[in-house]
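User: For my dataset I need records formatted as: sequence, then C-alpha cells, nothing else. Please produce one.
Assistant:
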Amino acid sequence: MAKKTSFLYVLTSSHEDFYCEQAIFSITSLKKYNPDAYIILLTERDTYKSLTGFRAKIKELANKVKVIDFPSNLSLTVRSRLLKTSMRNLIRGDFLYIDCDTIICKNLEKINKLNCQMGAVLVMHKLFDESCSGLNILMKKLNFAEIPIGGKYFNGGILYVKDTKQTRDFFKLWNKLYLHCVSTKNYKDQMSLNEANKRFANIIKELPGYWNCMPSRGGFNYLCDAKIFHYVTTMPGNEDVHILLDIAFWEKIREKGKMDKFSMNAIKNVKKLFGKFIPVSQNSLTYPSITIEKRKLQNKKLYIWGCGLDAYFTLGACKKNGLHIEGFIDSNLSGSFCGYNVQKSNAILNRVERNFFIIISSRKYSKEIGKICEKSKLREGEDFWKP
C-alpha cells in the first residue's frame, strides 16, 4: 500500500511576530478535517528555542519536528526561504507544503491521487497578463527568463511535491537560484521557483484554485469550494478585509494562550469572517435584509449579478432563506463562480421570456447595473433588486 502524503510546514519565528500562532491555527484546522494527517514541522534552532508557552503547542501538534542550524547573521526571512528551497532534500516521502498563513477548510485526502511530480496554483489565479508585466523587469534583473503573456507563473504558498530524483534535483537548483536572488538583495523565493520550473521543462503542474484559495489575490471564484484558505499576510493595508489580517486578532490569541471556543469558531467560520472583527452570519455583512417578496420569485429563475465578495455573501443569504440560484451574471468573468455557471448580461437580458429575477450584489456598481436593467424594461422590485 502506497504511503500517504505528509503535510509539511516551515516555520521561522520569534516573539516579535505571529507566524507561530498562525501555524498553530493552520495545523489545528488541518487536524479538524484530517484527523489522521501526518504533520512535519521544519524549523531552525533559534525558532525552536523560542517555542515556549502557547507557542510550544506547535510541537505537540506536529508528528515530527526537524531542526536545522544556520549562521546567526542570517535573518529569519532568509532562513525561512532557505529551509523552503531545501525542504525536498531534508524531508523524505511525498508531501504537501502549506504556508503558515492558511486555514484548511476540508478533507485533503484527494492529494494522494494527484498524478504529477509537483503541483501548485497560479499567482492571482490566472494566466500571466499585462497587469503582471512589471514582474518581468525584476526577472530580467536576475537574468531569469521572462514570463510570456498567457504563461503560467506559480504561487509557492502551497506546493505538492513527490519524492523523486527529479524533484530533489529541482530543489537543489531552486536553492541555488534563491541564493543568487539573495546576493542581489532580493529575498523573495517565487521568482527563483518559477525560473527553476522553466529550466526543468515545466515540471510544476497547475492545481485547481481551491487548493490555494487567495481571496485577496483574485481567488473569490474558489472561495465556496476552497480546501485551503490562504489569507496572505504579506498584503499591507488589508487589515479591515478579514479578521485574520488584523494584528489585534493575533494579539488576542496570544493573550488567551490557548485554543478555545473563540479560536475554533474562527477556524470553522473562516470563509465568513470578512470585515474587521465581525463574526457575521452569511446574510448580515453585506445585506442585513434582502427584502424580496417570495411571491415575486414564483416560477422565476433567480440570478445574482456580480462575482465578488458581495456576490459570495448574497449567495449565502439566498441559501439561508431557501432560495434556489440558477446562476450568476458578470461582464468580466466567464465560466463558473462558487460552482454556478456565469453568463454575460446580454444572454439574460435579451431573452424574450422574462421568467427571471435578478439580485444585484455589487454595492459599488448597483446604480449603474440598475440602469442597465431598466433600459431592458425590467422593473425594480418586480424583476430585479438592488442594494
